[in-house]
Amino acid sequence: MPDQSKATADMARHIRAFWDPRMRESMSNFLQQNPNGKSAQGHISDFAVKAYNHLLKNLP
To answer: Is pLDDT at 48 greater than 80 in this prediction?
Structure first.
């Protein structure tokens, strides 16, 4: 998607609408321990981290 800000907002809405609360909690816990989304066990894409942070800041 060429418009990265729209893609980020769309992904944030998707996370809010379709992810089970346990999935969001797991993402939150992981990012609290690994703010850049990377750990020895694995990593989350930069886009997913940006979308999740957008969710926290902009969506109810």
So the answer is: yes
